[in-house]
Design a protein that fits this description.
Its cofactor is dipyrromethane. The chain is α/β, with parallel strands linked by helices. It is built from ten helices and 13 strands. A five-stranded mixed sheet has the order 7-6-8-5-9, with helices on both faces.
Amino acid sequence: MGSRGSPLALRQTKTVISLLEARRIETSLAIVKTKGDQVQDVPLHMVSGRGLFVKEIDDRMLSGDIDVAVHSMKDLPSKRPGGLVIAAVLPRDSPFDVLVSGDGVAIDELEEGAVVGTCSMRRSSQLRRARPDLVIESLRGNLETRLRKLDEGRYRAIVLAEAGIERMGYRPRYSVLDPERFLPSANQGAIAVVTTRGRAAEAVGEIDHLPTRREAEVERVILEAIGGSCVVPMAAFARLQGGEILVEAEVLSLDGSRSIRVEGRVPAEDHIKGAVELSRRLVDMGGRDLAEEAVRNVGKV
């Protein structure tokens, strides 16, 4: 079992280990330091390369050193090495963003000019759209480091994923950001279990949660169609409702002043085809053009 060494990554990996060992599948743990872990003093979008938190683990899997790896699914690039498969997706935790602060203030109640920390281009654009008066500053580090920086007074508030806070059992004060204004990142709240093809994939497949997998796959189809990366401010959120999946997706300009958004329903049994059709709508409306603009101008905002 391969994992990053952060407390959250280890907590997620140990959850998977427990599920596998309950099925009499023996495991051992290997901690891998990724490029994203090693480069902590610059914003993520300024670090070259895709898959900053997964590439080294992928390489060790492809070389045969590791059989299984556990990831926050939103960290996985939409294009994956051919020898690897997402063998299981765990039931999704909260997909929502939260505004964490000393007093749990809501986004619309923040003082004018308040400093808000985030390392996400999507969150930055959405914050600028909702509150152009705020000062958005980069925030790097694992969950514990980000919360410590907030406690030290470097930021008035910070934006985090609710799922990570809940998995670690932390209890900071926060307000949940309205998902209509702050549409979540593709795959946020989902944990992916990656393996090489063959026996490992078959064994891990026993813990796959089909409803979450379908939601996640819809979001990933849209992500790939737009060319989403850590530089592109885009969101995709799919929710299974009966025999259909309700899908919302958007691409924003870096300053948050412009956005392109689509909504639709796709059949759960043919969700990939439906996601492709919806992603074409987003592209035709100019979503990919806006994404390419973001890539060109990322250093100017």
